[in-house]
Amino acid sequence: MSEAPASPNERRTFLAIILAAIGAVTAGVFGWSIFRFLSPVERSGEGSQVRVARELVAIGTVHFFAFQGRPAVVLQPRAGEFVALSAVCTHLGCIIKWVQETQEFLCPCHAGRFGNSGQVLGGPPPRALDTYPVTLDGDDILIG
């Protein structure tokens, strides 16, 4: 029982089916990756509040932390007054740095400057940093 060799048309059809299947799987993988990248981050439910010990934030200093999956910062500009801000520059999304000497935030990407309440002091940022609600709970600061 010998089988006749496949004709060139049958081989082409087989290769076309295999290549189409590989292309569909590849497109699915890339499509899912792009969808997950572009879909918004869920920001409710678990992790909607962050607790920071007051002792970590001395007067005139800052404490960086993660809030709802994004970088954030809390500072104490005056005794007993706490301000929580997003640590993401409103210009292009770079992470801001605290400059102790000038008591302001600086974006290292394009020299955007922000005051200790998040207001724009200079540079290209179009708006102030996002602020988060702050409440005090004993020896802790509750953010969110």
From TrEMBL:
UniProt key word Iron-sulfur: yes
Pfam family, one: Rieske
Residues in Rieske domain copies: 49-143
One cellular component term from this protein's GO annotations in UniProt: membrane
Molecular-function GO term, any one: metal ion binding
Annotated transmembrane regions: 14-35
Cofactors that this protein relies on: [2Fe-2S] cluster
Keywords: 2Fe-2S, Disulfide bond, Iron, Iron-sulfur, Membrane, Metal-binding, Transmembrane, Transmembrane helix
Membrane is among the record's keywords: yes
PANTHER family: CYTOCHROME B-C1 COMPLEX SUBUNIT RIESKE, MITOCHONDRIAL (PTHR10134)
Protein name: Ubiquinol-cytochrome c reductase iron-sulfur subunit
Source organism (scientific name): Pelovirga terrestris
Organism ancestry: Bacteria, Pseudomonadati, Thermodesulfobacteriota, Desulfuromonadia, Geobacterales
